Amino acid sequence: MRRETDFFDVFRETLDKLDGEGILVVAGDPPNPITIGWGTLGYIWHRQIITVLIRPTRYTFGLMESARDFSVCVLPDRYAKTLAICGTRSGRDTDKIKLCDLHPEKGLKSDSNFIAESEIHFECRIVHKHRLDPATLDPAIIKRNYPLSDFHMVYYGEILGIYRNA
After folding, report:
1. CATH numbers and ranges of domains, the chain
2. Which has the closest alpha carbon to 91: 62, 130, 114, 120?
3. pLDDT per position in the chain (166 positions), as tens?
4. Which of 32, 139, 161, 162 is the 20 to 30 A CA-CA neighbour of 23?
5. What is the pTM of this model?
6. What is the helix (H) or strand (E) element at residue 115, kind and residue range?
């Protein structure tokens, strides 16, 4: 059973997971989960927004480019192996849902799927996106994170609903 919850009730927990093992972004139909470790939660344009960064070399990039919405799923600690698989295997040649024995469900306020095993999930509608511009990015960040010049696309998702597994 899922219950809707408040942005601030899940803020710290979500950021801790993002900074730790990571969180899942789920896009596409059939759904494809990818583990991310970079993103933000905040308030922009008078809306609650979550940003997620996806490299153009990732399979999920193509799914996000054709999507109107996506979900962000925070898994319990016992899913560390799942997060590792979803962050290192490509959805181009691996059915990560099947491999990790995950169970997607249709969103409650969006068309995107979320992972039933998540303890928290966000349903988001893409309201903006932009590719990171190396001309305006700190050179130290480029040197450390972009040796292949594969700059992320940043997707801004308006949070339509936040749910906790009750």
Report:
1. 2-165 (2.30.110.10)
2. 62
3. 899 999 999 999 999 999 999 999 999 999 999 999 999 999 999 999 999 999 999 999 999 999 999 999 999 999 999 999 999 999 999 999 999 999 999 999 999 999 999 999 999 999 999 999 999 999 999 999 999 999 999 999 999 999 999 7
4. 139
5. 0.95
6. strand 113-115
